[in-house]
From TrEMBL:
InterPro entries per the UniProt record, alphabetical: Acyl_CoA_acyltransferase (IPR016181)
SUPFAM superfamilies recorded: Acyl-CoA N-acyltransferases (Nat)
Gene3D superfamilies, A to Z: 3.40.630.30
Organism phylogeny: Bacteria, Pseudomonadati, Pseudomonadota, Alphaproteobacteria, Hyphomicrobiales
Record's protein name: RimJ/RimL family protein N-acetyltransferase
Superkingdom assignment: Bacteria
Length: 149
C-alpha cells in the first residue's frame, strides 16, 4: 500500500461514494488516498473537512474497499497530517453505530465515543468520536515517533 497525494477531488469522491448519505460530498477539503501496490487501484481514502481554525477542530471521514489499507504508515500519516501539519488540537469522526468494525477501530485508536440516538436518521444511531492531539501523541501507536519507549 502506498499513499496518494494531490488528488483531493478523486479521493474525496471515492470516499463519498462509499459512505451512505454522503452523496453531496465534503465541500472544501483535503484528501489522502491509499493505492494498492499490486493493482494500482485506489482502495481507501481519508478526507479532512469542516476545518475550524478558531477551536482547532477538523473532521475526518474515511472509507475503503479492503481492510488491508490501514497499515502503520497510513495510520501515522492519517493523524500526523491534522495534528502536526495543520495544527489541529482535535479530530472529530462520525460513525454509524451499525458500523461495529469502525466503532471498534476508533476506540482502539484512543477516540472518545459520544453516543447519539438517531444521529444518522430516525432508525440509525451513531457516534461522534473525538481525539485530541495529546491523546494521539500519548497513544501506543505513536510512542516511537515521539521518542517514547
Amino acid at each position: 500500500m502506498r499513499l496518494l497525494y494531490g488528488c483531493t477531488d478523486q479521493v474525496s469522491a471515492f470516499v463519498a461514494g462509499l459512505i451512505p448519505g454522503c452523496e453531496a460530498g465534503f465541500g472544501n477539503c483535503k484528501a489522502l488516498g491509499v493505492v494498492d501496490d499490486d493493482t494500482g487501484e485506489l482502495v481507501a481514502g481519508m478526507v479532512f473537512h469542516d476545518w475550524q481554525p478558531g477551536p482547532g477542530l477538523i473532521q475526518i471521514s474515511s472509507a475503503s474497499t479492503t481492510p488491508r489499507w490501514l497499515t502503520a504508515e497510513v495510520r501515522h500519516k492519517m493523524f500526523s497530517y491534522p495534528f502536526d501539519e495543520v495544527g489541529c488540537q482535535m479530530v472529530v469522526l462520525q460513525v454509524s453505530a451499525a458500523n461495529e468494525r469502525m466503532v471498534r477501530i476508533a476506540k482502539a485508536f484512543g477516540f472518545t465515543p459520544h453516543f447519539i440516538e438517531r444521529m444518522r436518521g430516525r432508525n440509525e444511531d451513531g457516534y461522534v468520536f473525538t481525539l485530541t492531539d495529546d491523546a494521539w501523541r500519548n497513544s501506543k501507536f505513536t510512542r516511537k515517533y515521539h521518542g517514547q519507549a
